[in-house]
């Protein structure tokens, strides 16, 4: 029989899959893989040898996971709920969660008690998300991981107005044709993302403290100009892309909590 | 669907191949969304039948009516007074505008940033997919938004279009305009049909249309019970079919459905358990077969108990007063009733906000999903006001903007599920 104290959360996103195993109160194991074109095979790899009583799946692949792992006790929650739970665990006083992931941006406002009060997500278009940065980094031939540092080496700020990946690429191309430094173009692209994010935060009615999570929170340039635009320093968790999986694991713990006696 | 209608469809100049494909997709879609529901009411069999024959038997009836000298008048909006049409012995049908089928053809004559509903009716006509449009002796449009207004100009190259001017405000002079427009429609319908609208015929038509509204009001009262006795999808379908079906037969069938529902409510039987969150839809109309959002909502652990929409309470809430004696008095009663419509084309439109809040409170919903068609400016603008009014009443709202395509289904599911998690 599996240890009922041990539960897992898995976040199957568009770009990466994260797994967090909780034993009692604390995370015991955390691991991440790229989603690839075969997310289920990646889930199998992550779940291999993992002994848990309950798994809670979140992210776009949550149903896919629940259907495939029907031998386990699996429940599903949305990323909104998962990020809310995960964020409160990492920073108990947090009131707003910003998650910029591979294909969407979410803003979640929490009540003082930590319940979801309001949320907003971008719709079908991935403008202004991790995908946008990835695409633009490729266009400028810079590895995604160092794209933020590259942009920080800019010497002037030029506006890039398009948020649409396709239009922004043509804008970047015409800037290059005019001889603009690629660092400055990269900075312009980062600014475009942050401006969009800040207007989404304001629209939802953001209240500090803010937690910034999701893969894009690794990007130092986005972090720094977000802080500059908001006039507030967001909390960045140690593992910003693990917050969803952590929240899912916390939900798993809630639903497996033994009753009194 | 039986190919025995091929000859009729060919006569109507439909594109038989494409039309066959459309019916196949529609049938599958209907099976997945409707027939798969557990614990459905027996009375819904009538609706299943009507829908399975939506392009078959009903179209044959229209051809038979035409052969007998009656005219068929197509509409797109709840502003067109059906009472006038029926009083001239004509048949009124709501036209196809809920599927993406003719989008490519529509985009050849319309800007791409036009709402899906407009693209749909133009596309259906250009692609020769809608036997209703092909059966019409007159298509009555209206000036409810700039998109429709201008699209009718384009549409009139392909179909016999007549446009009613709907006022944009509710002052005395606007009522005068609408009074003149109803009179002008009566004259035109008399001219097309060759019949005269007499006081006796109009009195009867008012009664027939009121009876249909009353049975739908009864349905809405019954479905408000807890536990909820019928799915929101099924009630939406009933509302959708009310625009196509023969009004007398429809009223009788829905009355039977209501009897069955009454029994179910009495025995406390629900389509879902009593603790499933109750939601209300508000916003743009959902024409057949636009069931995307209701299906997503009801697959996300919630149940819909009201539709604040033209294909919903906006078309059934108000009755025409039946005490008019003369033709003029009856036309006045019609004018007054239609001027109460709280369409987003009016400014200001305070009534709609009040009606939404009252409806949400009466139905004891946990939240409202506001549905706007992408590029529908009037409803997109009002979504902000609706959210504010509901917030004041302590009712959360989720604003969804989408169209008829399926590409955003996963994103919509996440948002709807997160909303349900939030309000539960």
Q: Order of strands across the widest beta sheet of chain B?
A: 2-1-3-4
How would you characterize the largest beta sheet of chain B? 4 strands, parallel
CATH topology of one domain in chain B: Rossmann fold
Shape, per Cα inertia axes of chain B: globular
What does this protein look like?
The complex is a heterodimer of chains A (261) and B (424). By secondary structure, chain A is an alpha/beta fold. Chain A has 2 domains: 1-91 and 241-261, ATPase, nucleotide binding domain (Nucleotidyltransferase, domain 5, 2-Layer Sandwich), CATH 3.30.420.40; 93-236, 2-Layer Sandwich (Nucleotidyltransferase, domain 5). In chain A, 40% of the residues lie in helices and 20% in strands. Chain A starts with 5 loop residues before the first strand and ends in a 5-residue tail after the last helix. In chain B, strands 2-1-3-4 form a 4-stranded parallel β-sheet, with helices on both faces. A 4-stranded parallel β-sheet of chain B has the order 6-5-7-8, with helices on both faces. Chain B has a domain at 3-197: Rossmann fold (3-Layer(aba) Sandwich). Chain B contains 19 helices and 8 strands. Chain B is α/β, with parallel strands linked by helices. Helix content of chain B is 54%, strand content 10%.
Topology readout:
The complex is a heterodimer of chains A (261) and B (424).
Chain A: E1 6-12, E2 16-23, E3 26-34, H1 39-47, E4 54-58, H2 62-68, E5 74-76, H3 79-90, E6 96-100, E7 105-110, E8 116-121, H4 130-139, H5 147-152, H6 165-177, H7 182-204, E9 210-213, H8 220-230, H9 243-256
Parallel strand pairs in A: 1-4, 4-5, 6-9
Antiparallel strand pairs in A: 1-2, 2-3, 6-7, 7-8
Helix pairs in contact in A: 3-9, 4-7, 7-8
Chain B: H1 6-11, H2 16-35, H3 44-52, H4 57-67, E1 72-75, H5 82-87, E2 91-94, H6 103-106, H7 116-126, H8 131-135, E3 138-142, H9 146-155, E4 161-164, H10 172-193, H11 199-223, H12 232-241, H13 247-266, E5 278-283, H14 292-298, E6 303-308, H15 313-316, H16 327-339, H17 350-362, E7 367-373, H18 377-392, E8 397-402, H19 409-423
Parallel strand pairs in B: 1-2, 1-3, 3-4, 5-6, 5-7, 7-8
Helix pairs in contact in B: 3-12, 10-16, 11-13, 14-19, 17-18
């Amino acid at each position: 029989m599996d240890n009922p104290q041990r539960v897992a959360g898995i976040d199957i996103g568009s770009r990466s899959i994260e797994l967090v195993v909780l034993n009692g109160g604390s995370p015991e194991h955390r691991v991440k893989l790229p989603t690839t074109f075969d997310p289920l095979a990646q889930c199998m790899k992550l779940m291999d040898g993992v002994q848990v009583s309950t798994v809670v799946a979140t992210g776009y692949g949550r149903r896919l996971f629940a259907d495939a792992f029907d031998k386990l006790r699996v429940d599903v929650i949305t990323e909104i709920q998962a990020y809310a739970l995960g964020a409160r665990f990492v920073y108990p006083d947090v009131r707003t969660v910003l998650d910029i992931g591979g294909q969407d941006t979410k803003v979640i406002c929490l009540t003082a008690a930590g319940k979801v009060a309001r949320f907003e997500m971008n719709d079908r278009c991935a403008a202004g998300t991790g995908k946008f940065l990835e695409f633009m980094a490729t266009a400028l031939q810079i590895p995604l991981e160092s794209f933020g540092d590259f942009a920080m080496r800019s010497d002037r700020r030029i506006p890039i107005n398009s948020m649409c990946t396709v239009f922004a690429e043509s804008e970047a191309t015409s800037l290059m044709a005019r001889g603009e430094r690629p660092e400055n173009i990269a900075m312009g692209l980062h600014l475009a993302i942050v401006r969009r994010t800040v207007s989404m935060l304001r629209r939802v009615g953001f209240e500090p403290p803010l937690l910034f999570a999701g893969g894009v929170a690794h990007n130092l340039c986005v972090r720094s100009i977000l802080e500059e635009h908001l006039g507030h320093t967001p909390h960045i968790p140690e593992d910003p892309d693990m917050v969803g999986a952590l929240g899912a694991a916390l939900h798993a713990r809630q639903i497996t909590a033994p009753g009194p006696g | 669907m039986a190919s025995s209608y091929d000859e009729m469809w060919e006569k109507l100049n439909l594109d038989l191949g494409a039309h066959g494909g459309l019916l196949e997709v529609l049938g599958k879609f209907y099976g997945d969304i409707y027939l798969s529901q557990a614990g459905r009411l027996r009375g819904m069999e009538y609706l299943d039948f009507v829908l399975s024959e939506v392009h078959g038997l009903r179209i044959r009836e229209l051809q038979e009516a035409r052969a007998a000298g009656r005219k068929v008048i197509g509409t797109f909006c709840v502003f067109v007074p059906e009472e006038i049409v029926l009083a001239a012995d004509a048949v009124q049908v709501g036209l196809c505008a809920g599927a993406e089928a003719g989008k490519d053809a529509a985009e050849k004559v319309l800007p791409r940033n036009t709402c899906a509903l407009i693209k749909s009716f133009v596309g259906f006509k250009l692609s020769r997919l809608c036997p209703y449009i092909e059966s019409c002796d007159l298509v009555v449009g209206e000036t409810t938004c700039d998109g429709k207004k201008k699209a009718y100009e384009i549409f009139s190259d392909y179909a016999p279009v007549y446009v009613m001017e709907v006022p944009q405000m509710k002052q005395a002079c606007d009522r005068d305009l609408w009074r003149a427009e109803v009179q002008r429609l009566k004259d035109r319908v008399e001219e097309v049909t060759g019949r005269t609208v007499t006081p006796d015929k109009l009195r009867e038509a008012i009664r027939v249309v009121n009876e249909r509204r009353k049975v739908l009001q009864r349905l809405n009262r019954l479905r408000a019970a807890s536990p909820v006795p019928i799915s929101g999808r099924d009630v939406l379908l009933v509302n959708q079919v009310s625009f196509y079906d023969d009004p007398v037969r429809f009223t009788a069938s829905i009355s039977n459905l209501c009897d069955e529902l009454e029994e179910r409510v009495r025995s406390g039987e629900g389509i879902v358990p009593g603790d499933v969150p109750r939601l209300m839809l508000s916003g743009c109309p959902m024409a057949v077969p636009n069931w995307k959002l209701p299906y997503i909502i009801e697959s996300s652990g919630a149940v819909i108990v009201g539709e604040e929409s033209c294909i919903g309470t906006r078309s059934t809430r108000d009755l025409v007063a039946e005490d008019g004696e003369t033709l003029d008095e009856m036309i006045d009663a019609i004018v007054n009733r239609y001027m109460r419509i709280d369409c987003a084309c009016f400014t200001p439109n305070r009534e709609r906000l009040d009606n939404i809040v009252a409806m949400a409170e009466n139905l004891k919903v946990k939240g409202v999903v506001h549905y706007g068609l992408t590029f529908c400016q009037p409803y997109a603008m009002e979504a902000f006001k609706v959210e504010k009014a509901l917030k004041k009443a302590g009712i959360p709202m989720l604003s969804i903007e989408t169209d008829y395509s399926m590409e955003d289904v996963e994103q919509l599911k996440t948002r709807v599920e997160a909303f349900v998690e939030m309000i539960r």
